[in-house]
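User: Can you predict the 3D structure for this chain?
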Amino acid sequence: MRALLLAAGLGTRLRPLTETIPKCLVPIKGKPLLEIWLEGLTEAGVGPFLVNTHYLAGQVEDYVNSSQYRNVLTIANEPDLLGTAGTLMKNLDFFQGEDGMLIHADNYCLADLSAFQQAHRDRPNGCLMTMMTFRTNAPSACGIVELDDRGVVIGFHEKVINPPGNLANGAVYILSAQLLKYLEINLYTAQDFSVEIIGRFLGRIFSYETPESFIDIGMPESYLLANS
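Assistant: Here is the predicted structure, written as structure tokens:
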């Protein structure tokens, strides 16, 4: 299974750290965040990879070219940011007509990615994607999901006050080949995955809750937590 990792963000909330280093390369316990993702995905049999870049793109290219992943990773530089869905739409051919992962790579995630893939294979009939979820202590800062008794997403509340629960969208997805084909035909101009796509497919998104560490490192305090 191939994986597209979204890694082009500016990381403005982590300044001054991200004034000199792209967010995807900030170190967690001495290891670049992107490397943690690539290690976990490789161990789970995922690859090859496509990584989009924008801010301080040269540093990401230098990292990739000197890494063990240089032969299985392609960089897609974006002079102008395309958006989370825009990057996906531009690179649909990368998945070669098969199921694939879409990952917001600015999270520190120790989830069992093999179990995630198995959950996708076992998803209920009619579900076109599988979303990784996690429990959060800051639900109003996340996209909170509501599930039916099958674990299918039937409600989605993006960063609202007093959301109904604390089960959050981890912005890590497995997209079926059927969904990717639909997007290519019907939603090719979409730019924001959460806003323009998730809401359209409520009732057709399976969920996989990881019990392992899952931390959005976008804030200094959460970055420190990931390093603790």
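The chain has seven helices and 13 strands. Residues 33-43 form the longest helix (11 residues).
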